[in-house]
């Protein structure tokens, strides 16, 4: 479908004014989500993808951080890891990397740590503020050595939907954003199971369903083709959620 020049300008102006949390202009939505190549380039052009999400004070934290999505993977493999306090858990880093990694919680703690108090905005209609801590995803990917052909980062999780592991993806802009971290701590304590233990993604410029929980594997890939149904994530593939859920 062709988008008229006037509609293109209206949609672009809305985004440049900072209205990417809830995109009201139909033309803007068509532009941003009309295809992998098109929306990837236009998002970068129209929205400041490097801007920082707001951070808050300890006093502003919510009294309770409710879980989004799965509360417990409930599989035998996850139950065994949980019973051992995740001592045997390893996060595999692979795909288009020069140095595949297998990281324990201790290994993650050996990276430089980032702590941030941010607001989680859930597509279910609730928000909460909490403190998260962990290494930046960018530092972990640098340690693995991202190869030139990589364009996306795919996350595979311990929780299952329809008999298959949950999955999500982001591009390299979000992957190397300074607030994108592999969080193992919530409010200065190890992650509770309902919030994604032992490690979850925090990608603070996106809605909650992009923050994959119960991480088991991270892969650098050249394309989202062959990942699920090709739209980049479970909800994108099955419920038609937008792949780019920027806020």
UniProtKB/TrEMBL annotation:
Pfam families: Oxidored_molyb (PF00174). The keyword Flavoprotein does not apply. The keyword Oxidoreductase applies. Signal peptide: none annotated. GO terms for molecular function: oxidoreductase activity. Residues 86-220 form the Oxidoreductase molybdopterin-binding domain. PANTHER family: BLL0505 PROTEIN, PROTEIN-METHIONINE-SULFOXIDE REDUCTASE. This is Sulfoxide reductase catalytic subunit YedY. It comes from the Bacteria. Keywords: Oxidoreductase. It comes from Sphingomonas dokdonensis. InterPro entries: OxRdtase_Mopterin-bd_dom, OxRdtase_Mopterin-bd_sf. Its EC number is 1.8.-.-.
């Amino acid at each position: 479908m062709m988008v008229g020049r006037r509609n293109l300008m209206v949609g672009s102006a809305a985004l440049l004014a900072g209205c990417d949390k809830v995109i009201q202009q139909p033309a803007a939505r068509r532009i941003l989500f009309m295809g992998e190549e098109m929306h990837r380039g236009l998002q970068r052009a129209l929205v400041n993808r490097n801007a920082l999400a707001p951070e808050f004070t300890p006093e502003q934290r919510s009294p309770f951080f409710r879980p989004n999505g799965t509360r417990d993977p409930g599989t035998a493999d996850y139950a065994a890891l949980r019973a051992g306090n995740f001592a045997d858990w390893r996060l595999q880093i692979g795909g288009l990397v020069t140095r595949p990694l297998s990281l324990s919680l201790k290994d993650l703690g050996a990276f430089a740590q980032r702590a941030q108090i941010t607001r989680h905005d859930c597509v279910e209609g609730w928000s909460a503020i909490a403190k998260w801590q962990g290494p930046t995803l960018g530092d972990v990917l640098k340690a693995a050595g991202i190869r030139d052909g990589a364009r996306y980062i795919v996350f595979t999780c311990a929780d299952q939907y329809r008999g298959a592991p949950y999955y999500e993806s982001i591009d390299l802009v979000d992957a190397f954003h300074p607030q994108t971290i592999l969080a193992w701590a919530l409010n200065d304590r190890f992650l509770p199971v309902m919030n994604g233990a032992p490690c979850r993604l925090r990608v603070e410029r996106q809605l909650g369903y992009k923050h994959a929980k119960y991480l088991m594997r991270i892969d650098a890939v050249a394309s989202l083709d062959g990942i699920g149904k090709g739209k980049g994530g479970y909800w994108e593939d099955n419920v038609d959620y937008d792949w780019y859920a920027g806020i």
